[in-house]
């Protein structure tokens, strides 16, 4: 995993490109179950190639804005239809969005953020039991939900917790188990 922090495809030697197996490096990274933070904790000195986007994909568009959806009035039938349409549109066009006026108290958001931070600071051995790509698991920790499908990997780790009335708090990482009581109450 040596090399420059950013090297475009056209700057690499033909031999270097011929010897490179993206899929093999991607699988090796995923098999560590350490995620991006694991790379940082290991003291890497350069960004692995699986995270380097081709030059043509690195075009910065300054006019991009994250869709913001105001869900105030969601209990009113007509407004709910509008909100659902906005969410559908944002999800289809962007894949993500920000909700405002959701009535989640700032204290709850802060505790959830703290729980995720505490999880990310755990030792690799503690986190690795949650590393999975199995969508049926209530708790999933991995690096890039679409790691094995994208052209390049994104520099991020993700923890997803599917919250329902049936979620057993014992399934949650101990570092953020207290969040269950906050969210369900």
Automatic annotation (TrEMBL):
Alphabetical keyword list: Iron, Metal-binding, Oxidoreductase
Gene3D superfamilies (UniProt xref): B-lactam Antibiotic, Isopenicillin N Synthase, Chain
Segments forming domain Non-haem dioxygenase N-terminal: 66-165
Top-level taxon of the source organism: Eukaryota
Gene Ontology molecular function: 2-oxoglutarate-dependent dioxygenase activity; metal ion binding
Protein name: Oxidoreductase
Taxonomic lineage from the root: Eukaryota, Viridiplantae, Streptophyta, Embryophyta, Tracheophyta
